[in-house]
Design brief:
Structural class: alpha+beta
Strand order of the largest sheet: 1-2-3-4
Radius of gyration: 14 Å
Shape: globular
Amino acid sequence: MDHLHLVSEQIEREALVSLHACCPSDTKQALGLELVEVADGIAACSTKDPSILLNRTLGLGMTSPVTDQAVRQVHITYEKRSIDSYFLHVYQESLSASAQTELRKFV
């Protein structure tokens, strides 16, 4: 991942973490908000709102290439919470060949 992409991903990830940290507890509960660490990324989950703005994974590939296992773990994270739609933000250059193959299963 080039420097500009890395910095951009760090900013977006911190904004997502801050959104969850600053969210009032009653709102957090009403939306079913949860943050889950997956590989070197973070999956934001909302069991009460199907929006991909609240159901998104950021940060994969920041410290190491994205593996097929990481892609599967993201899918499992949302599947366990009965979340059908989510956004997985990854940079092409961060994907291993096996991760690219795995991603095709979920598109």
